[in-house]
């Protein structure tokens, strides 16, 4: 596929006022979240929940793409309609998480490298045939006194770049997700320094592997202080530190940044995104949007609680989070949160 086609897909995902819904939890992660709420950890419950998400009326007004896992990409509603087809009908692009998870990095206790490159080429071909237009791969970096190590930085950035090159070869837009984990007692400044280092390495490796920046998206974590740090930054400080870090490390040819929420509360994640737009709106070389999982889904999941009767209320909760983030990237938050006609 040409760079023009990849670039067009990336731009469509960055449609103004819209972001991505990350609903690609692996079976283990999804089951753990269900179990914590007393929901049966079954294939049928996962199907029912994902059906609820993708059939939310009006979802497409604030969501341009949905990231699915392998199971969901192949799944059908109770009445036999494919979830991919439902998304396509709603004008939401289906995407696919293609990494096989973070595994311990040999020789570096407490650090991880994401696996899944072996056999990726034929998997990507099949995913494209099944309707995926873009893909996602998550690398995990931890902050500690001696972490991340150079080994973890290079191994993860290399894997992200090889994944991205394979995606573009298969006609899929790669979403490159280097997540610097929130957990710890590190300061905002330390997270900024680590995130900048990670992004420099990622873009160096993307260049080495010949990835066309115009045909990809970046899904980074925001720059935050660890929850155990006694000196917690203001919303404005997080916004400034995050954007400053991106400006230093992310080339202007890359069209869009879609943040993960990373364990922040839904409200925090949205406020940080809104503050970035308030401080820097119109001055940045790339679009800034959201690709949240928990920060979009958590309230809906809690309301649904595995009960079909709670479906409409759960969908309403999802829509409220989507509206809040739409407002954050369009016109400010929280002023528009909750106004039904705001998107
Ligand atoms: C970091 O997680 C990604 C974004 O979700 P949050 O906004 O909740 O942080 C998310 O897309 C993640 O990559 C998927 O849920 C897949 O996770 P696992 O670990 O189950 O593969």
Summarize the structure.
With 343 residues, this protein is of the alpha/beta class.
List its salient traits.
disordered C terminus, 12 helices, 343 residues, alpha/beta, binds 2-O-methyl-1,6-di-O-phosphono-D-mannitol, two-stranded antiparallel sheet, EC 4.1.2.13, lyase, Aldolase_I_AS, glycolysis, 10 strands
Question: What is the topological layout?
Answer:
Elements (H helix, E strand, L loop, with lengths): L2 H11 L5 E4 L4 H10 L6 H12 L8 E6 L1 H4 L9 H7 L3 E5 L4 E3 L7 E3 L5 H10 L4 E8 L8 H20 L3 E8 L7 H21 L8 E2 L16 H15 L6 E4 L6 H15 L6 E6 L1 H11 L6 H20 L13
Parallel strand pairs: 1-2, 1-10, 2-3, 3-6, 6-7, 7-8, 9-10
Antiparallel strand pairs: 4-5
Helix pairs in contact: 7-8, 8-9, 9-10, 10-11, 10-12, 11-12
User: What are the bound molecules?
Assistant: 2-O-methyl-1,6-di-O-phosphono-D-mannitol
Biggest sheet statistics = 8 strands, parallel
Query: What share of residues is helical?
Result: 40-55%
Overall pLDDT confidence: 96
CATH fold-level name: TIM Barrel
How many β strands by DSSP?
A: 10
Instruction: Bin the strand percentage.
Output: 5-15%
- Superfamily at the CATH H level? Aldolase class I
Family: Belongs to the class I fructose-bisphosphate aldolase family.
Pfam families: Glycolytic
InterPro entries: Aldolase_I_AS (IPR029768), Aldolase_TIM (IPR013785), FBA_I (IPR000741)
Protein name: Fructose-bisphosphate aldolase
